[in-house]
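W.,

You were right to be curious about this one. When I first looked at the sequence I had no strong expectations either way, so I just let the prediction run and decided to look at it fresh. Below is the sequence, 362 residues in total, followed by the output.
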Amino acid sequence: MLWLPVILIFPYLLLLLCIYRGVLIIKPFGSSTDPVTFVSVIVACRNEEKNLPHLLKCISDQEYPKNILEVIIVDDNSTDSTFEIPSGFAESGNIFAIHNKGKGKKQAIRTGINASSGSLIITTDADCLMGSNWIRTIAAFYEEKGPDMIICPVKIESGGGFFGRFQELEFLSLQGVTAGSAHAGNPAICNGANLAFTREVYLANSDNLHDEIASGDDIFLLHSLKKNPGSVILWLESEDVMVITPASPNTKSFFKQRSRWISKASAYNDRFSIMLGIVTFITIMLQVAVLAAGFINLTFIAVFITIFLLKSIPDFLILLNTSGRYGKRELITWFLPAQIVYPFYVLSVVFYSLISLKKPEY
């Protein structure tokens, strides 16, 4: 019975090693063709007057024909000048703002897509930045591979100190799971800050997005699409499509964001995502419980060390691969302290989500 907790973490070990096998087969995409797909970029935002001009500058600089590109900024009841900002880019002729026909991010995205003309939809956030070949590379990948959904990489800005490094490591880990599970043929998560899908697919699945939950416009679409036989969901590996998003500036905003992420888990209906979440949470709980038992009975310390090492093996392998692909290999030096803190961080987020009454929509 003493070593039973070690046996109980083997499902986590096997799942993460399968995901690691997925990241090992990732190959960068490159194309010299000029795509001809009409693309609609949808940005749902509220009170983003500070960030939106930088995003629109990035989009204005895209190496993509303006006659087959439109950018729709959906203002979700802002109280600042967000709605007026796109008019400053009127010379582009394809960037415009509309008002949300409801409330919340999901309805804002739905409003934008209903108003769009493109066969390929790309979503991003107002505080994101990207390179000039972002749209061209996504469209070229779409024309070559023909997927229903394209999951693209997201990287957060570098932060200082342990808090900043911890955010980067956690986000890299999530990106590793995102890419690895997609390449393994069973995508578990995605990020609406850099996501593409066909307009047809969205309209066919838009009733399955759980409008009663503020968050999850991206992952509920993914899970709904996975239930459709023959759906093709692919990860796009390319430096050209990397989107940069800011890190949380403080612990309060960090916990709010993570709380929002886990608030949608109760509505998941994708078996693999549910299993991955349960297995991960059980593994974390076992770590904390066995460590606590070690203060009472020192023989449990050896059990804790064994669990810690076994869990760290796939975590380290995925992070080592992902940090290398993202040009962040120096972050590996922070792996051990972050790994020690991680179980307590997860439990803190769960506790925060239970006591928090406010559920942010962005």
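Here's what jumped out at me. The CA atoms of residues 35 and 140 lie 5 Å apart. And, maybe more interesting for your project: The two ends are 45 Å apart (CA to CA).

Coffee later to discuss?

I.
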